[in-house]
Every structure is written in structure tokens, then in C-alpha cells.
Amino acid sequence: MNTRWLLAICLAAGSSVAAADPLDLYLGTGLGYATVQQSFVPAEHPLGWKVFGGWRPLQVFSLEAAYVDLGSRSAAIAYAEGGLQQNISASAVAAYAVGYLPQPAPYLELYGKLGVASLRIDAREPVVCPPGAFCPASYLTPPQVSDSSRARLAYGIGLQSKLGMELVRLEYLGFNSPGGDQGLLSLDVAFSF
What we know:
Blueprint: H1 2-19, E1 24-38, E2 41-44, E3 47-58, E4 61-79, E5 82-101, E6 108-124, E7 127-128, E8 144-163, E9 166-175, E10 182-192
């Protein structure tokens, strides 16, 4: 008698897992506007891009990994004795747990992401001499600051539409950093298989 119950439970569990497409893998890419900022320099919006992949073992949960290039930007800061041209570029490698909210429309899904990222920010700050002034060569040497942070908070929210094997997403990703949060608002295309 116990064997029959065990077999019935295994069959029921197996059918519910099979209904959730346990091997739903997906790969995709996205393009959008990034927010790149560092300490006292205001945020700008360069072109950013990403590639990502994931595994969705349940209808309400997936695991995802991504490489995100937040682009680069330049900002000029003027001082009485000269100026500063700051060039910043940022990128991240991230891993997320993704949760999906059930929606009344079967082809639309709202989701949120929470994870960790290794964020890399490179800042170059060459000093510009004022016009007509004599500046020694050491004054013109561009210092470089590289901040590779470990285990930074990564988060995101998005809306996706599943059209057969294709996924189309509108998504915002954010990365916590000491100089201000970095982010990417992107339009993504992915393929599930």
C-alpha cells in the first residue's frame, strides 16, 4: 500500500515539474542608456549593452548571469588654476535570482532581480593647463583610478513578453557603488530553448 502512495506522489510531482518547463534555458542581449557616475561628477547617459543567460526551473523563479558594459563618458571640471577632464568607464559581471509575478495576460510577465555583481569602474583624470601657463610634464601625467569592487548589490526590474521561443524585455538594472549607483535601462531580445 505504501508503494502505491509513493508512486502516486512521485508521478504527481513529476507532472507538476514537467508542466513548468524545468529545462527552460535562455540567452539574450540588450542595448540601452546607462547611468555612469563617480563621486563628485554628475551622471551621464552613454550607450550601454549587455549579454545574459539564464535557467528557469520554475514558472516563478530563474537564475541568471550577465555581463554588462555601462559605456564610458567624459566630463570637464574647471578650476581657477586649470581644469580636469574626467573619463569614466564601467562594466559589471553579475549573478541574479529572478522572481516572476503571475499576470492575467499569459504573454506578459513582470519580474524583479536581486543578486551580486563584480563592478569595475575605471576613471582617468588628466589635468589641463590654463591657456598660456607653463606646466611641468608631471602636471600633465594622467592619474588612473581603478575601482574593482567585490560583491556589490545588483538589482533590477523588468517587463517581458514571450512570443514563442523569443523573449522581448524592457529592463532596468542597478549596481550599488561607493561613488553612486550605476545603472542600465535597456531593450533586450532573448531566445529560449
